[in-house]
Amino acid sequence: xxxxxxxxxxxxxxxxxxxxxxxxxxxxxxxxxxxxxxxxxxxxxxxxxxxxxxxxxxxxxxxxxxxxxxxxxxxxxxxxxxxxxxxxxxxxxxxxxxxxxxxxxxxxxxxxxxxxxxxxxxxxxxxxxxxxxxxxxxxxxxxxxxxxxxxxxxxxxxxxxxxxxxxxxxxxxxxxxxxxxxxxxxxxxxxxxxxxxxxxxxxxxxxxxxxxxxxxxxxxxxxxxxxxxxxxxxxxxxxxxxxxxxxxxxxxxxxxxxxxxxxxxxxxxxxxxxxxxxxxxxxxxxxxxxxxxxxxxxxxxxxxxxxxxxxxxxxxxxxxxxxxxxxxxxxxxxxxxxxxxxxxxxxxxxxxxxxxxxxxxxxxxxxxxxxxxxxxxxxxxxxxxxxxxxxxxxxxxxxxxxxxxxxxxxxxxxxxxxxxxxxxxxxxxxxxxxxxxxxxxxxxxxxxxxxxxxxxxxxxxxxxxx
Length: 466
Description:
With 466 residues, this protein is of the alpha/beta class. The protein has two domains: 320 residues, Alpha-Beta Barrel (TIM Barrel); 81 residues, Sandwich (Immunoglobulin-like), CATH 2.60.40.10. The protein has eleven helices and 26 strands. The strands form five sheets. Strands 2-3-6-7-8-9-10-16 form an eight-stranded parallel barrel, surrounded by seven helices. Helix 4 packs parallel to helix 5, helix 8 runs parallel beside helix 10 and helix 10 packs parallel to helix 11. The N terminus is likely disordered.
C-alpha cells in the first residue's frame, strides 16, 4: 500500500535538488481553453485505492469517457507464490464489470508494500521468478482482468538486472495470453538515477518489455522531508523528456498527484484535496500559487502550531497536461481518485475532448459538424435537509438534487461565520460525531460534480442533546 494513502514509504532516501525560491500569487482558477488545433485527443488513467473505493468508483463513473484504464489498488505481493488482498480490501465484481462496461481496461496494481526483501527473494532465482509470473498470471486470468500493474518499490540498485529479467519474462508470458503488463517507476532525469529506487529500474529495458510505464512524478518533497512542492513542474518536464528519449513515448503515462501533505516541520500528513481544502476553509487560510513550481499551497495555525500545506488541484494538473502533449506521451495517470478536486476533470475534458467544429467543403459547400460529448451539468441544491440529534452526534439527511449528477456532497456545519466542511460520498446521509453535548450547530449541504459545486441547501440548525 502507499503509506498514509499516498505513494511513499515512511522513510525514503532521496537526492533532491535545492528547491527554488517561492514566487506566490493569489490562486486563480486556470483558464479552461478548448483543445488547441493539432492537439492529439488522449485518455487518462488513475488508481482507485481500496480505502476510498466507493468515492473513487463514483469519480470514475462521472468521468469514464476520459479514461482508457483503471488501476484497482487491491493486491499485496507476499512472496513468489503468494499475492493477497490488502487488509480491508475487497474484490468487487460489480465494479470490475462496471468499468469494463464503459469500454475501459481494468489493470489492477500489485504492490510490495515498500518491502524490498520479499521482492529480492523472488528475484534471486529463475525458479522463483517463474513462480511469481505464474502467480500473477493466475490472478489475472481467474478474475478476468486485462493485465497487471507492477508497483515494486524501494528496491536496491543491485536488483536492476534481475528486476529487468522478471519484467521481461512477465511480459512475454502475459502477451502470449493477450494480457498487458505495466510497471510503476520512480521519476529520474538520467540513468542510473540518484538513489537505489530508480537505480533498480532500467527505463529503456523495462519500456521495451512492458505495455506501459507509469512514472511516479511526484513526492519530490515527501512525508518526512521539509515542506515544499510535491511535483515541481520543471522537474516533471525533465523526467518526461528523459522518459521519452528512453522509452517509446506512447508507452509512457505521466504521474500526477491529486493529494497533498500537511506538514508540521518535517512531519507530513498525506491527505486528499477534499480534506486539505476543508482544513483551509475551516482555518480561513489564503490559498497561494507558487508560479515557479506551479503548485498550490497555504499555511495555517492550529492550537499554536504552524502548518504548511502543498497539494495537487485543477490548476496544477492544468499546468502539467501540456507536458504530456509536448513529449507525445500516452496520457496522465492520477494518484489517486476519490477525494480529488472535481475540477481536475473539467481541465482534462477541456484539453482533450473534441469541440464542436464546422467545416465547409470547397467543392459542394456542404457542412459537417462533429459534436462534443455531453458534459456534466452543474448540480442544483440538495433538497429537504433534515437535522436530528441522535446518540453519539447529530445526524443529517437530505434529498438528492433534481438537476445534475453528484460526485460528492460538501457538508458544512458550525456557528455563524465559523464553519467546518467535510466531503462525503454520494450517500445522502451524514453523521457529525464531533459536536459537543448541548452545542448548537447550523448545517448546509452542496452537491459537487465534474462541472463544479452547486448551490447550498437550506440551512438547518440543531442542538445536540443525545
